[in-house]
Design goal:
Low-confidence stretches: 237-245
Number of helices: 15
Number of domains: 3
Structural class: mainly alpha
Radius of gyration: 21 Å
Helix content: 40-55%
Length: 334
């Protein structure tokens, strides 16, 4: 079995078990270590997406542990590209253009691949635009004569200054107009985007899946893995040492994390079931604010755009209303 940690970089329809692959939610601290403690171990581990803000990010050391144990670890697209660029000298295998850009120092900032995304039960759909996708799209637009080089560079700089959770093409084009970028090329770009937008993260994710059909073997590492007491405690609990779960709770969590369908259904429900999440249904005003935020974040200015997005992400009207409900309930969380 090959374990693949995937989220917004790969649409749910492409995260289907097959060819010896098992798709898991985005990786978090302790997830790779838990895989290594199960028998049989995975034949390889692939990282596309990972948590980094609401949960501790996957540790470099747990990846090194996998490599030291002879388990290939591959990365691409998002968190996987970052970790592969940082650990390729130790044997982690990077795939795709995003990895290469980080490895070669063309990209430096972590937020180039960061996106806001929807909940697990919706398949972690991206709710903002990754800067790496914006760069790739603007480069193609420049080659096709929609923008000149100066316009491309101006838009890239403006995009870099937008907080990653708020990045969208609509926000970028509005900011560019406010900054005095010429209107004609902005209008041409807006008209071209529906068919011309490049999703570099998705392309790199697909490239990694192609490599996994015949995963490479690893030479014996030329370095020594240093086992420490602190890492042993983290690897054993998956994160917070001071508030570690009981043995029974840890066993349940281990099983849930390795059953992606069940885990994805239960995790957000557990978060919203916490006392601070509140028990009552959101009122009309809260739902209206939540709907407006969601539509703006997803760049859905009208019904046609909303229906296209829903179709692309496998949602019907009820599913979209569930996203609004969740957004409204999350408003009250600290």
């Amino acid at each position: 079995m090959i374990a693949v940690f995937a989220g917004p970089s790969l649409p749910p329809a492409e995260r289907r078990a097959g060819e010896g692959m098992r798709f898991l939610p985005p990786v978090a601290q302790g997830d790779v270590a838990r895989l290594l403690q199960r028998r049989p171990r995975p034949a390889a581990i692939a990282i596309l997406d990972g948590f980094f803000e609401g949960e501790p990010a996957v540790l470099h050391k747990e990846i090194l542990w996998a490599l030291a144990e002879g388990v290939p670890v591959l990365g691409a697209a998002s968190m996987g590209a970052l970790r592969a660029a940082e650990l390729h000298g130790h044997g982690m295998i990077g795939v795709g253009e995003i990895f290469a850009a980080y490895r070669d120092g063309v990209l430096v900032d972590d937020d180039e691949v960061a996106v806001l995304h929807g909940p697990a039960e919706a398949g972690y759909p991206p709710a903002s635009e990754a800067m790496v996708n914006i760069r790739a799209t603007l480069e193609v637009a420049c080659r096709r004569g929609i923008l000149d080089a100066a316009g491309r560079d101006a838009l890239i700089e403006i995009g870099r200054r937008i907080f990653y959770k708020e990045r969208s093409w609509r926000r970028l084009l509005a900011a560019a107009a406010e900054a005095g970028v010429e209107a004609a090329p902005l209008e041409a770009l807006a008209a071209w985007l529906p068919e011309g937008r490049i999703d570099r993260k998705r392309e790199d994710a697909r490239a990694l899946l192609a490599v996994l059909r015949d995963p490479p073997s690893l030479p014996a590492p030329a370095w020594h893995f240093e086992w420490t007491g602190i890492f042993a405690r983290i690897a054993g609990t998956g994160g917070e040492v001071e508030e570690a779960p009981s043995e029974e709770e840890a066993a349940i969590l281990d099983e849930l994390r390795l059953d992606p369908d069940l885990y994805e259904r239960l995790r957000p429900r557990a978060l919203l079931a916490r006392p601070e999440a509140g028990g009552g249904a959101p009122d009309a005003a809260t739902r209206a604010r939540a709907r407006a935020r969601l539509l703006e974040r997803l760049d859905l200015p009208d019904r046609r755009a909303r229906e296209r997005w829903m179709a692309a992400n496998g949602l019907d009207a009820a599913g979209f209303e569930a996203l609004v409900e969740r957004e409204a309930r999350l408003e009250g969380l600290p």
